[in-house]
Design goal:
single chain; alpha+beta; FAD/NAD(P)-binding domain; D-Amino Acid Oxidase, Chain A, domain 2; 2 domains; 9-stranded mixed beta sheet; 6-stranded mixed beta sheet; about 25% helix; about 25% strand; disordered N terminus; binds flavin-adenine dinucleotide
Length: about 400
């Protein structure tokens, strides 16, 4: 039988990354680029979790002001560098985001978002209804106004995962669930799987939904299901619109604002295949991946009100993914507060495709003791206390 114990013969640090989603893949990429010897373990296969069941907006435009907006900006810059270095050349592409409003209250939300973006140095272009109509053919008359944020981007999660793992040259052990962390002398020294123990100098838990059980975050991580709809091709030569249409209701949800009129959290995303991706619901506490007629029809009704021309499209599939949120709305990234050798990277909710490069880079620096290129101290797990493990070995 293959012994799962990692060889220590190369003198490099040996790191186990639990989870082959986009956060685990980005962490493995930056670790191995810095010379570490990395093994990725996954219960299932790469991108089997949220990273393969999501949209791929790499969007600063949509972020809550403060650390999330700043980190998104830093992460988008890393995406661009990865393109320049040939790593994500055919995977990440630049495109604008269009924010839109249907009530006066929503117009105010967009104006506030624009002001916050400008404060960060982001370019924004307010648009009247008529100007929006010129850029977005088929737009409905209920849309009052909008804003173009020109410098955002898009990358499909499962394609990023595949490429980063390939370039990292980190072996991925599929169908290898980590059952427990192995603790010895007060520090984490490896993990236990059905194949036996794996020994490492450091362990990074980037296991999405599976993180809670492993590192004592049971009451802190919150699943939030999102259902999405895929249409047939509206265009046979690339994206049917220049960029995604993002509702003010979506921004309000991200900003944790409650609007007086119920306002759908809607994104109509033109994929490079010419199809539309329409979504998504925000179902707190749900961790199943079923889609249902009520939610799908509500989303389609909302989308038709914004772009009546969508009535000409056929629905070819629906799917759902699970975002992992946190009690305070910020990701959890950093050293475990009491167990040396253990690092956590999770809780990116609906922003993990965007944030994965900056998080992966920051975790790699922490694990290897390198100077931090980006300050992610606001995401420190210690803000939730000691996080005692429920069942270490
Ligand atoms: C509907 C929807 C739309 C979204 N749209 C966007 C978007 O437009 N832009 C954006 O930035 N983000 C978006 N997101 C969010 C983004 O998809 C997630 O934040 C991101 O994929 C999380 O990545 P992850 O690596 O942390 O988790 P995951 O992708 O879930 O990966 C975790 C991995 O860990 C493995 N695992 C779990 N437990 C164990 C264990 N015990 N042992 C070994 N392996 C284990 C799982 O099998 C899985 O492969 C969206 C999410 C959803 C659901």
């Amino acid at each position: 039988m293959l012994t799962p114990e990692i060889s220590r013969s190369h003198g490099a640090r040996h790191v186990i990354v639990i989870g082959a989603g986009i956060v685990g893949a980005a962490t493995a990429f930056f670790l191995s680029r810095a010379g570490a010897h990395v093994t990725v373990l996954d219960t299932s296969t790469p991108a089997a979790g949220a990273s393969g069941a999501s949209d791929g907006a790499v969007s600063v435009a949509s972020k809550r002001p403060g650390p999330m907006m700043e980190l998104a900006c830093a992460s988008r810059a890393i995406y661009r560098q990865l393109v320049q270095h040939g790593v994500l050349t055919d995977i990440y592409h630049a495109r604008p985001t269009y924010l839109f409003a249907r009530t006066d209250e929503e117009v105010a939300v967009i104006a506030q978002q624009g002001a916050d973006l400008m404060e960060l140095g982001e370019r924004v272009l307010p648009l009247t209804h008529a100007q929006l109509m010129q850029r977005v053919p088929g737009l409905g008359r209920h849309v009052l106004a909008g804003m173009k944020v020109p410098d955002d981007g898009h990358a499909l999660g499962y394609r990023v995962v595949d490429r980063l793992l390939q370039v990292a040259n980190a072996p991925v052990r599929r169908f290898t669930p980590v059952q427990r962390l192995v603790v010895s002398g007060g520090r984490v020294v490896g993990v236990l799987t059905p194949d036996g123990p794996w020994v490492a100098d450091a362990v990074v838990v980037a296991a999405g939904l599976g993180t809670a059980a492993l590192v004592g975050l049971d009451n802190i991580l919150i699943p939030r299901k999102g259902q999405l709809i895929v249409t047939d091709r509206a265009s046979l030569s690339g994206a049917a619109l220049p960029g995604p249409l993002m509702s003010a209701g979506y921004l309000a949800a991200k900003r944790r604002m409650v609007l007086s009129q119920s306002s759908a959290s809607l994104v109509i995303d033109p994929l490079v295949t010419g199809q539309f991706l329409i979504g998504s619901s925000r179902e707190t506490g749900f961790a199943d991946r079923q889609t249902d007629i009520h939610t799908v029809s509500t989303l389609l009704r909302e989308a038709l009100a914004v772009v009546p021309a969508l009535a000409q499209r056929r629905v070819i599939r629906t799917f759902a993914g699970i975002r992992i949120g946190t009690q305070d709305g910020l990701p959890i990234v950093g050293r475990h507060p009491t167990l040396p050798g253990l690092f956590i990277a999770t809780g990116m909710e609906g922003d993990g495709i965007c944030l994965a490069p900056v998080v992966g880079s920051a975790v790699a620096d922490m694990v290897l003791g390198l100077p931090a290129k980006v300050d992610v101290s606001v995401l420190d797990p210690a803000r939730f206390g000691d996080l005692p493990l429920s069942d270490p070995l």
